[in-house]
């Protein structure tokens, strides 16, 4: 019933699309319950968008985008209608798509009709385009609708205005808000689509406040501030548990790595991204407030080079909550990794690790098992991938999972008292012991003794005392917690080793860094213990650090600089910090003292607290007799129970357990127990060496025995087990390295070890030669291998953090430090690191306690705003000066705006600022610094940018004028030189031209006179001769006969029928004959070489008659207009799917320059057959070829080429080329290509071929370009597909350069060599150009990167944006140079690159 009421009262987010009613708004999100009516929803939209209330509005529901709209009645409930939508429509609300569900706001006219106002789809496209232009800065940002992105801009400053502004933005799904440079994040408990790569690019290199607030903006500002100021930065994320700190950290890390990868990715970015899921799996758990709560603190420091590339990283962890491993409160779970392992392990792994269901484990079965919306199998795969990215080998991952299973089985061990003895215990379920001993690789007897008895050494004797029942459970849980804590420390150590840059071990160059602090949030549970006490103390320190930077140090600096300022009061928590950590009466110190007394109890600890701090205002004690105390933190009062305070502060593992684990056969378990990682590594190397030495000896003995027993060489070492062998060189290197870290007693035996290694040389070489003939001396080793230097370096970094290792401390004289002491040391080092960096603060706020999506709880948010001092923060940011420059830096940065010779003094700067257009209260000049507010700094930056651009334009104008002047002078000098030297030649040519003109004119006059005489003579002759001789031609002059013969020879290109050889089947066309068209046929006069019958009247056709040039339809001339049969190959617009035997021009248009069938076939061959041997040499199945050809001829788009062999597809492509009525290189230009190939000089031949190609039509040229580029790609893979340029030319020359039917067959056979050579020349020439162009592109890219680096240095001082833009445009112009015959801009981009 409670769950049902909670569901009924829960709020949902409804998106209403106003369309043209609210320009610039895509949708308006409102909060509504199931009972909210459409009238109430419309009222909220009107209030949110400030619409005209005098008009009438209705709400419409639309399904399947662009479909029918359903008008909702005022009493209808939109949420109930929305819950009936498909789940996909609720999860993916795209801006456009085939299926979509929306609520639209429509205006109702006076007559009751609905005013639609245009297409919703078109309006969405326009609105989305406007939004993109606003994001890019091309359009001004829209005015805020009643809310402010920066709380400093609030006109009225109080708690209510702060809360109203945040609530208004939150309901619009704007979860980020600025307070100056501080970012407030309200956790929506829902993923919002504002973190894709588009937003990464959007916020790149933008000033804080230019765009909508975002976590990416803070990361970008910190990154560029680090590069410009060359100082370390840190981002401090704080907030309650469940406020979204971990998710904000992940977004920050993702953006920082993305910024680094703009130039050259070093590979460390992937390891950083992979480390996050690994640490979350092992260190996060579900709590009452948060489903993914961090149960440890971490500080991620990303180190950069001066160029901005990631150099390395470092992860530091703080106080893992070990008690959660053995006990969880109500509605909480254990660490995520256990549930991932049990749900995602394979059957083989479940059997090897003895895995069970979560309900069968004591450590997991205490409360809940599942989380809503969780996919454990997917999370386990994600964890495996992340561990692989970090560098964990499969064997290492198996060891980790084996240890996790051992911890779970260890928790299942239960105890009972023995019946015959009261002081001894026994194990209830002994079947768990073999499983634990197998997984830990320890002896079962030793494990039983360690879990049931303890050994005490007195003077002269050793006592074995059995545990009591409560002590045994404590020892068992302590062993499990220490194992898990040691494993977590080892994982963090290995991640740091993978993130370590080996250059840091030898180089001392300056390293810039950005640190991101994600520490546990403030916690107040029903039962608070030692862990919550430490966690809240850490948050007290962070709040104190925040107050120091925002309030105390800021106001002290104002006073020291002597500027006018009124102090702002704030909550100072120094007293609470001193209560907990200031010696000698600090609570931590008193706790350590009580831990040293054996007879101390919880009550004595509480009494000591009372005696020392009875009158302190920050601590209270309950009135009733309760073992607890109350601390007044900055976030409120928290009650802590003192139970288990002492035990958790000294949670050491007994020496018996440590000795047991160190006796494990697993090197992994032994390594976890080691105190010094470098010492553990040295002994591991030594142990591996001696094992290899023994293995060599045994192998040598077996080799010698088998050599004497069998003569066959194939039997050598057949039975040798798979051992890990070292080469001789490696073995000798190991021996030499052992001298550097072996104890003194072992160094004396170094010579003996070297001698033994040398004696094993022939045995090892024999083994290697017989085992593998292709043996290489340098095997491929995995990445991130350990070495002594890196281990020492990392150990020095973590000297302050020895929590787990101190638990295993076995020194008798010196006790290990307590947990609280080590935690304070870690916090002190953290504060020291933060103090050396410039901080950015991210304040995370929990929106509601029920973890409901987009639910805003006013009281909860207001409480968090109060204890974080947000009102005071806004006040000091609003009235303070958060931008500070020293006099020298100010003059250096704004020197362009200042008058020349301005000195870096207070008076000079004050005078210059007074002359600029700035608000008088927006700046102040102190004794040594200039103080600016953010608005004034932005105004100065805008003025600086404008002035720099003006000077750049002036320089460019003068430089261009100088260039033009030089060009003009050169041209003038050249003109004078030409006029002086060529005047006589010009005069001579002019006289000669005059003589030629005169001669031609006189010849023309004489010719006209001759023709007049000839006409008169013809008239006389016709009148004097009889009628029967009319056909006799008059005598002609020799010149006239010669002209007529030449004219006849030019007009008749057909060779003599006696010389011409007739083809057996081919039909030849006669040129210069009239063309007739009927029913799609194109009839031309045709000469038939075999007896043929008319297809209309069935009569015999003589040698010369008509035929269709498309389908070869033969008929008489008289039957052409009578035939009723349509041409089978005529292109019909209604049957536009026909592809074969059709002119190329009919298959292309302005949008598609290459036929669709060609593009589809070539793309498929390039995708799947580029490396197929003999791709165009071999033929496919004839039936499949016919089937595919018919399918493509019918419908190209619906054909699936995956159903056919690659050779079938290649054959169909060649068939398409052969079926073209006019080949790609055309019949008209065939003679020109043959004539060009007859040239002797190779350069002249190539130039001639390309000049003929320029004469091709645009459609033929585009298709030919695509084909040649495809053949070039095929030829470049000659080593694989065995298709050289010559082989491709042999195949494709008959397809694209066919001889016309009018040419003599014998001549066409003789031209085969020339056509093949022509195609081969084109392919080879384009291959050469392709290689040269790639080389030029590489050179240009290198020059571009070099210029970018230089321009980056210039931007740091002057930021000349226009120069960078112009340089990029010039560089791209150089790449895009084209040849004359590739001038079209609509061609394939890759082909354009090739033909360049």
Description of the molecule:
The structure is a single chain. With 1396 residues, this protein is α+β, with helices and mostly antiparallel strands. 51% of the residues lie in helices and 11% in strands. It is built from 51 helices and 32 strands. The chain has a 7-stranded mixed sheet with strand order 7-8-22-9-18-12-13, sandwiched between helices. A hairpin with a 5-residue loop joins strand 12 (297-304) and strand 13 (310-318). Helix 20 (587-596) packs antiparallel against helix 21. The protein is globular. Mean pLDDT is 77; it is low at 92-99, 712-778, 802-813, 1024-1073 and 1359-1396. Residues 1142-1330 form the Rho-GAP domain. Belongs to the TRAFAC class myosin-kinesin ATPase superfamily. Myosin family. Pfam families: IQ, Myosin_head, RA, RhoGAP.
């Amino acid at each position: 019933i409670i769950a049902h009421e909670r569901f009924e009262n829960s709020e949902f987010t409804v998106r209403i699309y106003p369309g043209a009613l609210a320009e610039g708004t895509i949708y308006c999100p409102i909060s509504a319950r199931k009972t909210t009516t459409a009238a109430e929803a419309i009222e909220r939209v009107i209030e949110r968008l400030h619409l005209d209330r005098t008009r009438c509005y209705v709400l419409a529901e639309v399904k399947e985008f662009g479909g029918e709209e359903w008008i909702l009645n005022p009493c209808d409930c939109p949420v109930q209608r929305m819950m009936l939508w498909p789940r996909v429509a609720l999860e993916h609300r795209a801006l456009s798509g085939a299926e979509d569900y929306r609520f639209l706001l429509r205006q109702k006219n006076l007559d009751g009709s609905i005013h639609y106002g245009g297409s919703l789809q078109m309006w969405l496209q326009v609105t989305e385009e406007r939004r993109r232009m606003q994001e890019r800065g091309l359009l001004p940002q829209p005015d805020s609708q009643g809310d402010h992105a920066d709380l400093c801009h609030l006109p009225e400053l109080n708690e209510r205005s702060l809360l109203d502004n945040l609530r208004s933005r939150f309901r619009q799904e704007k979860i980020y808000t600025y307070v100056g440079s501080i970012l407030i994040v309200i956790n929506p408990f829902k993923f919002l689509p504002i973190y894709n790569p588009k937003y990464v690019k959007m916020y790149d290199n933008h000033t804080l406040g230019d765009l909508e607030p975002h976590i990416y903006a803070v990361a970008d500002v910190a990154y560029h501030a680090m590069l410009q100021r060359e100082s370390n930065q840190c981002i401090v994320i704080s907030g309650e548990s469940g406020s979204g700190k971990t998710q904000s950290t992940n977004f920050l890390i993702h953006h920082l790595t993305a910024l680094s990868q703009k130039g050259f990715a070093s590979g460390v970015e992937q390891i950083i991204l992979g480390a996050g899921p690994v640490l979350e799996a092992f260190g996060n758990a579900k709590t009452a407030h948060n489903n993914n709560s961090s149960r440890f603190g971490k500080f991620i420091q990303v180190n950069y080079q001066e160029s901005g590339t990631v150099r390395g990283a470092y992860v530091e962890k703080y106080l893992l909550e070990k008690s959660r491993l053995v006990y969880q409160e109500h509605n909480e779970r254990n660490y995520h990794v256990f549930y991932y392992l049990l749900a995602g392990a394979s059957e083989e792994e479940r059997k090897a690790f003895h895995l069970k269901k979560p309900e069968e484990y004591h450590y997991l079965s205490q409360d809940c098992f599942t989380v809503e919306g969780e996919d454990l199998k997917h999370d386990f795969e994600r964890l495996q991938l992340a561990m692989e990215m970090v560098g964990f080998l499969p064997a290492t991952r198996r060891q980790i999972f084996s240890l996790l299973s051992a911890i779970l089985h260890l928790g299942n061990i239960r105890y009972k008292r023995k019946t015959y003895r009261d002081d001894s215990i026994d194990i209830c379920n002994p079947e768990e012991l073999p499983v634990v001993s197998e997984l830990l690789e320890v002896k079962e007897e030793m494990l039983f003794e360690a879990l049931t008895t303890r050994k005490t050494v007195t003077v002269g004797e050793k006592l074995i005392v059995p545990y009591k029942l409560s002590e045994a459970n404590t020892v068992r849980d302590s062993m499990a917690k220490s194992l898990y804590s040691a494993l977590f420390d080892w994982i963090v150590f290995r991640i740091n080793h993978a993130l370590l840059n080996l250059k840091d071990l030898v180089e001392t160059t300056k390293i810039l860094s950005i640190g991101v602090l994600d520490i546990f949030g403030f916690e107040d549970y029903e039962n608070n213990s030692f862990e919550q006490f430490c966690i809240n103390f850490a948050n007290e320190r962070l709040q104190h650090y925040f107050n120091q930077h925002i309030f105390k140090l800021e106001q002290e600096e104002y006073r020291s600089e002597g500027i006018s300022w009124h102090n702002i009061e704030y909550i100072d928590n120094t007293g609470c910090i001193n209560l907990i950590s200031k010696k000698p009466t600090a609570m931590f110190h008193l706790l350590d003292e009580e831990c040293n007394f054996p007879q101390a109890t919880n009550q004595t600890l509480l009494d000591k607290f009372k005696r020392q701090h009875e009158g302190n205002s920050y601590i209270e004690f309950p009135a009733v007799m309760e073992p607890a105390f109350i601390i007044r933190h900055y976030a409120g009062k928290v009650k802590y129970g003192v139970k288990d305070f002492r035990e958790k502060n000294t949670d050491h593992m007994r020496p018996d357990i440590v000795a047991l684990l160190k006796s494990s056969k697993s090197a992994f378990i032994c390594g976890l127990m080691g105190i010094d990682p470098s010492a553990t590594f040295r002994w591991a190397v030594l142990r591996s060496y001696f094992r290899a030495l023994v293995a060599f000896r045994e192998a040598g003995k077996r080799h010698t025995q088998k050599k004497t027993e069998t003569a066959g060489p194939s039997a050598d070492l057949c039975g040798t087990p798979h051992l890990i062998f070292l080469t001789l060189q490696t073995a000798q290197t190991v021996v030499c390295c052992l001298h550097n870290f072996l104890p003194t007693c072992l160094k004396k035996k170094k010579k003996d070890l070297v001698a033994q290694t040398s004696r094993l040389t022939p045995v090892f070489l024999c083994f290697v030669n017989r085992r593998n003939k292709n043996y290489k001396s340098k095997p491929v080793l995995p990445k991130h291998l350990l070495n002594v230097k890196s281990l020492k370096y990392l150990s020095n970094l973590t000297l302050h953090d020895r929590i787990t290792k101190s638990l295993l401390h076995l020194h008798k004289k010196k006790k290990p430090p307590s947990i609280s002491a080590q935690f304070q040391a870690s916090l002190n080092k953290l504060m020291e690191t933060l103090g050396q960096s410039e901080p950015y603060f991210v304040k995370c706020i929990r929106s509601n306690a029920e973890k409901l999506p987009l639910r805003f709880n006013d009281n909860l948010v207001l409480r968090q705003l109060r204890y974080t001092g947000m009102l005071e923060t806004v006040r000091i940011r609003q009235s303070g000066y958060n931008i500070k420059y020293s006099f020298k830096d100010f003059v250096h940065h704004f020197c362009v705006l200042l008058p020349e010779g301005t000195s870096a003094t207070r008076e000079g700067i004050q005078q210059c600022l007074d002359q600029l257009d700035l608000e008088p209260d927006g700046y102040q000049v102190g004794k040594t610094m200039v103080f600016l507010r953010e608005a004034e700094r932005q105004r100065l930056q805008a003025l600086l940018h404008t002035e720099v651009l003006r000077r750049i334009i002036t320089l460019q104008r003068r430089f261009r004028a100088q260039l033009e002047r030089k060009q003009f002078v050169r041209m003038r000098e050249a003109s004078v030189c030409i006029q002086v030297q060529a005047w006589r030649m010009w005069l001579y040519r002019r006289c000669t031209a005059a003589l030629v003109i005169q001669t031609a004119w006189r010849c023309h006059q004489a010719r006209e006179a001759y023709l007049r005489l000839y006409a008169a003579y013809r008239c006389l002759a016709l009148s004097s001769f009889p009628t029967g001789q009319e056909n006799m031609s008059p005598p002609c002059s020799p010149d006239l006969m010669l002209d007529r013969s030449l004219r006849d020879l030019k007009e008749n290109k057909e060779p003599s029928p006696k010389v011409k050889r007739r083809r057996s089947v081919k039909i030849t066309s006669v040129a210069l004959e009239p063309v007739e068209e009927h029913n799609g046929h194109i009839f031309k006069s045709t000469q038939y070489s075999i007896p043929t019958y008319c297809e209309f009247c069935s009569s015999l056709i003589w040698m010369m008659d008509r035929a269709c040039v498309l389908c070869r339809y033969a008929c008489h001339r008289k039957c052409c207009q009578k035939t009723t049969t349509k041409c089978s190959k005529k292109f019909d617009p209604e049957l536009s799917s026909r592809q074969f035997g059709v002119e190329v021009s009919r298959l292309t248009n302005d949008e598609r320059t290459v036929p669709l069938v060609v593009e589809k076939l070539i793309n498929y061959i390039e995708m799947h057959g580029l490396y197929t041997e003999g791709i165009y040499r071999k033929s496919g199945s004839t039936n499949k070829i016919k089937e595919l050809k018919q399918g493509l001829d019918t419908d190209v788009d619906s054909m699936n080429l995956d159903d056919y062999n690659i050779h079938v597809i290649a054959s169909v492509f060649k068939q398409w080329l052969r079926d073209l009525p006019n080949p790609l290189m055309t019949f008209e230009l065939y003679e020109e290509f043959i004539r060009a190939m007859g040239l002797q000089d190779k350069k002249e031949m190539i130039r001639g071929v390309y000049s003929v190609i320029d004469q091709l039509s645009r459609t033929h040229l585009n298709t030919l370009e695509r084909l040649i580029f495809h053949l070039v790609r095929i030829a470049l893979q000659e080593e694989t597909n065995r298709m050289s340029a010559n082989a491709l030319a042999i195949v494709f020359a008959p397809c694209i350069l066919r001889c016309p039917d009018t040419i003599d067959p014998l001549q066409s056979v003789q031209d085969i060599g020339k056509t093949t050579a022509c195609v081969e020349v084109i392919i080879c020439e384009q291959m050469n150009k392709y290689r040269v162009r790639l080389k030029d592109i590489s050179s240009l890219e290198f020059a571009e990167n070099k210029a970018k680096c230089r321009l980056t240095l210039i931007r740091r001082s002057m930021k000349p944006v226009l120069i960078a833009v112009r340089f990029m445009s010039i560089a791209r112009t150089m790449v895009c140079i084209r040849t004359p015959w590739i001038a079209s801009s609509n061609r394939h981009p890759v082909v354009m690159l090739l033909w360049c």
